[in-house]
Amino acid sequence: MMPFISKEALQRLRDRYKPGTRVELLHMDDVQAPPVGTKGTVIGVDDIGSIMVKWDNGSGLSVAYGEDSCRVVSDND
User: Where are the beta strands (DSSP E) in 1-77?
Assistant: First the structure.
């Protein structure tokens, strides 16, 4: 079951993962997940805290709050 996200935690996610932010996938528990290490560009954060990402490999799977993880990277990483 997906964890509930508070308004404060949701705002922190939206502040950290603004549209255009580059991220790298660290973990995603989905058979269709991009490989760990795949980079992508944040589109936004939805109302349940999922980070919506356009992955460089063409995938559009979101990073689920409390389940999956990614990190912010610079374009030089």
Answer: 22-27, 39-45, 51-55, 69-72
pLDDT value of residue 74: 84
Over the stretch 66-77, which tens digit does the pLDDT of each residue have? 999 999 998 677
List the one residue out of 75, 67, 64, 60 whose CA is nearest residue 23. Answer: 75
What is 7-72's CATH topology? SH3 type barrels. (2.30.30)
* Confidence category of residue 2, pLDDT binned at 50, 70, 90: low
Spatial neighbors of 9 by CB under 8 A, at least 6 apart, are: 49
Q: What is the pTM of this model?
A: 0.91
Domain ranges of the chain: 7-72
Distances (CA, A) of 3 to 34, 41, 43, 68: 23, 24, 22, 12
